Amino acid sequence: MASHIVGYPRMGPKRELKFALESFWDGKSSAEDLQKVAADLRSSIWKQMAAAGIKYIPSNTFAYYDQVLDTTAMLGAVPPRYGWNGGEIGFDVYFSMARGNASCPAMEMTKWFDTNYHYIVPELGPDVNFSYASHKAVTEYKEAKAAAALRGSEHRRATTVSARLDAQQKKLNLPVLPTTTIGSFPQTMELRRVRREYKAKKISEEEYVKAIKEEINKVVKLQEELDIDVLVHGEPERNDMVEYFGEQLSGFAFTVNGWVQSYGSRCVKPPIIYGDVSRPKPMTVFWSTMAQSMTARPMKGMLTGPVTILNWSFVRNDQPRFETCYQIALAIKDEVEDLEKAGINVIQIDEAALREGLPLRKSEQSFYLDWAVHSFRITNCGVKDTCQIHTHMCYSHFNDIIHSIIDMDADVITIENSRSDEKLLSVFREGVKYGAGIGPGVYDIHSPRIPSTEEIADRITKMLAVLETNILWVNPDCGLKTRKYTEVKPALKNMVAAAKLLRTQLASAK
User: Fold this and answer.
1) Does residue 388 contact residue 419 with C-beta atoms inside 8 Å?
2) Which residues are catalytic?
3) At a CB cut-off of 8 Å and minimum separation 6, what does 18 contact?
4) Whole-prediction pTM value?
5) Separation CA 340–CA 336 (nearest Å)
């Protein structure tokens, strides 16, 4: 027997909606604050229904004030006295109809049949012109569908990676052995000073944006001079690859001095995930589109993946880790799709920490890999074939999870290879077939040593012995944030020279 209900209490177990509404009406909180409380309540309601075993879970049972008023708004049946001139009905008109405002009274309110529930009575007459003026029902359906789909869909892109790579090549027109970097460029003392002073409100936002723009322009020009094929903006606005995103997502908190050693003298401040995660607004689109406007070459949008954000944070323990990871994945999915809409055709979603979250108990490893890989696929399942999705993984033992890496279904993966004595290549020698683009790092960025052109060319040659020419990328092992420009420039120059040398040799062989 299938179960279904048509409504559900929406105030919250502790009247969260009541207090959020009254705070908003009193001007003590913002519309975004109210929307966040509402979204959390809806998510909680759907989870409760699912946990209770309800098969057909309804959406649009939520209302900020009254469900009849919601229908009135959806149909655009707004009385002329409220001064509405079309467009999406927002809180100002909605709550004016419900509660009145300084210049006009509220609409009539009466009881719903023989209950004590009061609804807002529609005012229908010749002056009311119907129109589709509120997308709330559709928006909440999509929201509920996304939440439910996490349990019922694999979130795979519609076509195979080979078909996508063909479509991407037609759009990007990259050479054989395309070159790129992993994301960050050196963070100078001056750059850190600018960020520090902006955070302390010692410089204006205008001054901050100007300084960061100048740094991005410098990084873009350097890459063009080096003749790198797919560029990055250098991430000058970012402190840490997890902290930067956590500061812009709901549900995260940060310590002031909660430093944790990463390696050597490198420390990070892991965020604390205390609540449900969502993305209030775009996080990287402004900087990525700015960088793309500076060059005709492809510019990578740079994001940190959900599994890495989870594994490099202190995570709430009142729900399963995979639930939190799915929430982060949906937030990153929104960012990926906004980047694509803004014209960014190459997007990198780093999963540096996917392998390190693998449980020690073998009996638990399969379940972890299933939801971790699924979380990654959620982030990019909605983009077009022409949008090239990269991911980066660094310093771990990958050979035992190579099939899960393949199951991530990324278009291109860049991966640590040089310091591990090229152990990664052994898995391909053993017969594992990999059809997506792959960039095993050609030099170690965690060392100040500058590799020669010949050394890098030799590494590429070893890779070509086990990987197809048309899928191999040439890139460093990791981001360049911790290096100096005196090290980065010659190393990248030699890397590009090595790629060009091999292209010439391959062309001659044909």
Assistant:
1) no
2) 446
3) 11, 12
4) 0.73
5) 6
